[in-house]
TrEMBL record:
It is found in: Cytoplasm. Belongs to the class-II aminoacyl-tRNA synthetase family. HAMAP family: His_tRNA_synth (MF_00127). It catalyses: tRNA(His) + L-histidine + ATP = L-histidyl-tRNA(His) + AMP + diphosphate + H(+). Residues 1-400 form the Aminoacyl-transfer RNA synthetases class-II family profile domain. Pfam families: HGTP_anticodon (PF03129), tRNA-synt_His (PF13393). NCBIfam families: hisS. It comes from Flagellimonas profundi. Its main location: cytoplasm. InterPro entries: aa-tRNA-synth_II (IPR006195), aa-tRNA-synth_II/BPL/LPL (IPR045864), Anticodon-bd (IPR004154), Anticodon-bd_dom_sf (IPR036621), His-tRNA-ligase (IPR015807), HisRS-like_core (IPR041715), HisRS/HisZ (IPR004516), HisRS_anticodon (IPR033656). PROSITE patterns: AA_TRNA_LIGASE_II (PS50862). GO terms for molecular function: histidine-tRNA ligase activity. CDD domains: HisRS-like_core, HisRS_anticodon. This is Histidine--tRNA ligase. The lineage of its organism: Bacteria, Pseudomonadati, Bacteroidota, Flavobacteriia, Flavobacteriales.
Length: 462
């Protein structure tokens, strides 16, 4: 007996309706990327392991899918390494490539390799799948698409303002009102680590803090202590967990806390400029909110960081995020190239739009017209008619066989086809075709010599 087929956990098949909805989101995001002057690039689905490893922190490294070398890879491993059963020493010997974890590090590699071919500041967008060996759950998959936009070669904070506007423009176009764009600055977190005496444990501090909305304050503090951050230092950081009020009020409190930290005060200054500029230009449907506990655990962020929350009442993780990285290309040999970028979480945005019933009804219609098949002669004439309708811009199809009419109508109904054409022997004799409105049941004749009349009616929605 054949084994029942399956797919790996954290991956999905997509139906035609799901693909149509995903494409709707992608096309909306792509439209606004190009409106804002971003250019498309693509990079390989897998990179050399050395390109990816060490760029996302220890936790990120553990989630990278490694690709085994081809051939008899085990025979090339020495006995001592093999018998040690140490994955850290064994992996580099049997795996030289890995599936990309995100689009940002491959983009940095791209910029360095093509630095003599691109014009700076370089604004690029990229919409491709990424892979993470994460634990699957709602809104979190092992294979998913990222929709990224980045600017490298410009350190102006106007770029951060533009990205806030870009988020807002896309969500407004999707009808997703009420999204919250959270903002913080890694310099503020660096400053806090400095004033509490944990500067040398900044990465551990931010990685733990990044889990605040997932595991809560007490567990975050427990993880910090496990990483070597003292109880006294955590107590000094307590104001961070209790920060409330408007952005202006929170920034005022931070100025007091960070008075002795030069880097921390620089972070406060940058946030003040970004927030005040956004307030001046205004947003359509989203809100910008300062969240001083926002950390984003990735090591490469150095300035402003973003995370987008779905509208209130929708239980979903972040639907977007990003930030400033001052020297990401430096890891590949190109120093002092500042960059900033954001990402849209396609799969989570899909789930939010679905929960809020925001997808247009038109996406459920894959055909404008289906022509029924009444036999060889009629079918040939119907194919000619369908070909003409296609040339005029309609999504038209001919049922392939002259099976029972009832079965053909049932097929049209399941496909959600709004109009069905009947072209039988009598219609051919009269030089006409009959159109049935599947919603109302009304029927109307049209001349085979004047199909443009029917086409215009379909395009105008009758």
């Amino acid at each position: 007996m054949a084994k029942k087929p399956s797919i790996p956990k954290g991956t999905r098949d997509f139906s035609p309706a799901e693909v149509a909805r995903r494409n709707y989101i992608i096309q909306t995001i792509k439209k606004h990327f190009e409106t804002y002057g971003f250019q498309p690039i693509e990079t390989p689905s897998f990179e050399n392991s050395e390109t990816l490893m060490g760029k996302y922190g220890d936790e990120g490294d553990r989630l990278i899918f490694k690709i085994l070398n081809s051939g008899d890879f085990i025979s090339k491993v020495d006995d001592v390494t093999y018998s040690s059963k140490n994955s850290a020493s064994l992996t580099p010997k049997i795996s030289e490539k890995a599936l990309r974890y995100d689009l940002t590090v491959p983009f940095a590699r791209y910029v360095v390799m093509h630095q003599n071919e691109i014009d700076f500041p370089f604004k690029r967008y990229q919409i491709q799948p990424v892979w993470r060996a994460d634990r699957p759950q709602k809104g979190r998959f092992r294979e998913f698409y990222q929709c990224d936009a980045d600017v490298v070669g410009a350190d102006s904070l106007l770029q951060e303002v533009e990205f806030v506007q870009l988020y807002d423009a896309v969500f407004a176009d999707l009808g997703l009102n009420g999204a919250t764009i959270k903002i913080n600055n890694r310099k503020i977190l660096s400053g806090i680590a400095e004033v509490i005496g944990a500067k040398h444990l900044l990465v551990d501090f931010t990685v733990a803090l990044d889990k605040l909305d997932k595991i809560g304050e007490e567990k975050v503090k427990a993880e910090m202590m496990e990483k070597g951050i003292s109880e006294a230092a955590i107590a000094k950081a307590q104001p961070l967990f209790e920060m409330t009020g408007t952005a202006s009020e929170q920034l005022g409190k931070l100025k007091t806390i960070l008075a002795d930290s030069e880097v921390g005060m620089l972070g406060v200054s940058e946030l003040e400029e970004i927030i005040s500029t956004v307030d001046m230009v205004g947003l359509q449907s989203s809100s910008l909110q300062l969240d001083v506990t926002l950390a984003r655990g990735l090591n490469y962020y150095t300035g402003a960081i973003f995370e987008v929350a779905a509208p209130e009442g929708v239980k979903m993780g972040s639907i977007g995020g990003g930030g400033r990285y001052d020297d990401l290309t430096g890891i590949f040999g190109l120093k002092d190239v500042s960059g900033v970028g954001i990402s849209f979480g396609l799969d989570r945005i899909y789930l939010v739009l679905e929960e809020l019933n925001l997808f247009p009804d038109s996406l459920d219609t894959s055909l404008d017209v289906l022509c029924l098949n009444f036999g060889k002669k009629e079918g040939t004439a119907a194919l000619k008619l369908v070909s003409g309708l296609r040339k005029q811009g309609l999504r038209a199809d001919l049922y392939p066989t002259d099976t029972k009419v009832q079965k053909q109508f049932k097929y049209a109904d399941k496909r959600g086809v709004p109009y069905v054409i009947l072209l039988g022997d009598q219609e051919l004799t009269n030089g006409k075709f009959v159109v049935k409105n599947m919603k109302t049941g009304d029927q109307k004749d049209y001349s085979l010599d004047a199909t443009e009349v029917f086409v215009e009616k379909v395009k105008s929605g009758f």
